[in-house]
Amino acid sequence: MTIRKLETGRPGMKHVTWGSAGRILVAEEDESYASTVAAVLQGQGYRVDVAPSAAAALERLRQDRYGLVLVHYGLPDRTGVALLEQARGEGLLEGVAELLFTGKPSVEAPADVTVMKKPIQMQHLVQQIHSMVGPPEGPGPPPPSGSDRRRKSMEARQARARYGAKIELALYVTLPWPSSLRAQSNLSRVLSGVPDGEVRLSVCDLAREPERAERDNVLFSPTLVKVWPEPKMWILGDLSESAVLTDLLMMCGVSPSARA
């Protein structure tokens, strides 16, 4: 069977929520790669668990419900296809989207399993997952309470006093790549509607600032990072979806004007 191409959309897309289906299980033996994928998806708002083997993935599926399983074909104890077949046989994948990734030129997989070929650009992976299960919706994780809320409020006041801003962003680019130039232009257009001093922005060259990129878990460009306030968040690609940027800013108390 030939590897199917990346799908850009799917009828009947299932919208996931923080309460149940907004969870993704990544079955991948390579710890470094799995951590990178998890960080990117968590930055998009998903909750992610990682299993290093088929056995560990099955155990996770028996304990919890997921909206999507992202499985590497070459797991150490069996193939990703065999894992999916057993999980299906046990009734663990009802209502769960299935995404298989592989470095092989072709694999035999069920017709309703989406297949992506490595190396995978993270931007394309996020787009594919959005097309399959939709972006996370709902209120997100519960707000901090008690002393934790007071601590975070104090940290926010201290940071504002230090930076004089409500949010700190870092845009990682590789110039003069067109996608990086578009990201700069799109971000500037949105920020033009923000009052002066509310956003602290750094534009970083990925090739020249590898240590900073490593601290921010950035491996490719263009990537926008919400550095502060925590938790960090990542937006991948050329930032052409202005609504995503606006939502990110408003979440931190910054309201761009309509002209953005």
Write down the domain tally. Answer: 2
- What percentage of residues falls in helices of 4 or more residues? 25-40%
Provide the CATH topology of the largest domain.
Rossmann fold
What is the CATH class of the largest domain? Answer: Alpha Beta
CATH superfamily of the largest domain: Response regulator
State the strand order across the main sheet: 2-1-3-4-5
- Using only CA atoms, what is the Rg? 20 Å
Shape: elongated
Distance between the termini: 47 Å
Main structural class? alpha/beta
Task: Please report the total strand number as a whole number.
Answer: 9
Low-confidence stretches: 1-20, 138-145
Average pLDDT metric: 80
> Percent of residues in beta strands?
15-25%
Order of helices and strands: EHEHEHEEHHEHEHEEH
Based on the model shown, name its key terms.
single chain, 260 residues, alpha/beta, Rossmann fold, Glutaredoxin, 2 domains, five-stranded parallel beta sheet, four-stranded mixed beta sheet, 36% helix, elongated, disordered N terminus
What features would you describe in this structure?
The protein is α/β, with parallel strands linked by helices. It has 2 domains: 23-133, 3-Layer(aba) Sandwich (Rossmann fold); 152-251, Glutaredoxin. Helix content is 36%, strand content 19%. The protein has 8 helices and 9 strands. The chain has helices at 31-43, 54-63, 80-89, 122-133, 146-163, 178-191, 210-215, 242-251, and strands at 23-27, 47-51, 68-72, 97-102, 114-117, 167-173, 199-205, 223-228, 233-236. The chain has a 5-stranded parallel β-sheet, sandwiched between helices. The protein has a 4-stranded mixed β-sheet with strand order 7-6-8-9. α2 (54-63) runs parallel beside α3 (80-89). The longest helix is centred in the middle third of the chain and has 18 residues, at 146-163.
